[in-house]
Amino acid sequence: MVRANGSYPLCPGFKSLHRHHPLLKRFRRDLKEYPLQGGQRLLLAVSGGGDSVGLLALFLSARPRPDLALGLAHVHHNLRAAEADRDQEFVGRLAETLGLPYASLTLRGKPAPTQSWEEWAREGRYAALESLRERGRWDWLATAHSRDDQAETVLLRIHRGTGLQGLAAIRPVAGRVLRPVLGFSGLELREAAAACGLSWIEDSSNRDRRFLRNRLRLDVMPVLETSMPGFTRRLSALARLAAEAGPRSNPLEFANLSAGTLYYRCDALAALPRGEGLELLRQGLALVRGDLRNIGERHLRALWALREARPGATVALPGGWAGVRDDAGIRLQALPAGRTRP
C-alpha cells in the first residue's frame, strides 16, 4: 500500500517526503551518479547534527527507489565529555525509533606530536566507520558532506596551497565511502529533516572560533555569499569540474612503488613540464601516504627542486615523511617513529 504522501511505509515512526517534493526529486536524480544498486546495504554516518539527520531523511524518503537496507553508525570522539555522550545516546534512540540497525565506536588515545586534534579526530572517525562497515558487512558507507562543506574545503586548500587536483576537495566517491548530498546546502538538509518530523542536536564545538574551518564558516562564508550570491554553489561546482578533469598522468608510469616508498628517476622527471611534474609528485605522495593533509605547494616545489640537488639532499614533509635525493632519483619515504629528518 502506498502512503498518502507518496512513499512506501518501510520504516515505522517516519513521515517521509512526498514523492514530488523538490528535494527528494533532486536527491533521486543525484543518486543515479553513484554506484548504488537495489538490494545493497548502506551504512549512514550520523553524528546527530542537522546535516546527517537530513541525509537519513532523504534516504528513508527515497526508498524503495533505490531499495536499500539502511543502518546508522556513530563515532564518539571522546573529546566533549557529557555532550559527546548525549550525541551517542541521541543517535541510538533515533535508530531505535526508526527500527534501523545501529552501531557505534568510541575513539581512544590522542594525537601524535605532529598531528592536530582535528586531523586525529578525522582519521580516527574514518577508521572507526570503516571498521563498523566491514564488521556489519555493509556494501557502502555514506557521509553527509554538503555543498557548504565542499566550498569551505576548496577555500582551505587554496589557502594551504593546492594544485588543480586539490581543488577537487571532497570526492563524491572514495573507496567505499559515498558523499551523496554534496549538491545540497546544510539548510536544505535541515529542511528535509524537519519536513520528515526528525529533530537533531547541535555540536557546540562547531562554533569554536579557535578552529580555522569554523572561522571560515561563521565569519567569512556569509560575507562572501552576501557580497557575491551563489559563491558557495560555484565553488562546489569548481570542485566537481576538477574531480571530473582527473589526473593527466599515472605516477606509477614514472615511479616505482616498493615497500611503502615511491622512487622517481630524475631523468624521467626532467622530460616533463614543471606543472605536470608537480602534479605527479602530488599524486605520488597521495598514493604512498594515503592523503595530502598539510602538504602545500611549497613542499611540492621543494621536492621538484631535488632533481637538481646533490645526492643526500632531503626535503622534510609534514606527517613524518621526507623526499630524499640519491645518485639517480628522488625517494618519498616515511621516517621512523620519533624522527623528523632522515
Number of strands: 11
Radius of gyration: 22 Å
Helix content: 40-55%
Helix/strand class: alpha/beta
Q: Tell me the number of helical segments per DSSP (H or I, 4 or more residues long).
A: 11
Low-pLDDT residue spans: 1-9
In terms of DSSP E residues, the strand content is 5-15%
What does the largest sheet look like? 6 strands, mixed
What would the average pLDDT be, to the nearest integer?
A: 88
What is the CATH topology of the largest domain? Rossmann fold
If strands are numbered along the chain, what order do they take across the biggest sheet? 3-2-1-4-6-5
H/E element sequence: HEHEHEHEHEEHHHEEHHHEEE
The CATH superfamily of the largest domain appears as HUPs
Structure, explained:
It is a single chain. By secondary structure, the protein is an alpha/beta fold. It folds into 2 domains: 22-242, Rossmann fold (3-Layer(aba) Sandwich); 251-334, 2-Layer Sandwich (Uridine Diphospho-n-acetylenolpyruvylglucosamine Reductase, domain 3), CATH 3.30.465.60. 42% of the residues lie in helices and 14% in strands. The strands form 2 sheets. The protein has a 6-stranded mixed beta sheet, sandwiched between helices. Helix 5 packs across helix 7. It is elongated and about 70 Å long. It starts with 21 loop residues before the first helix and ends in an 8-residue tail after the last strand.
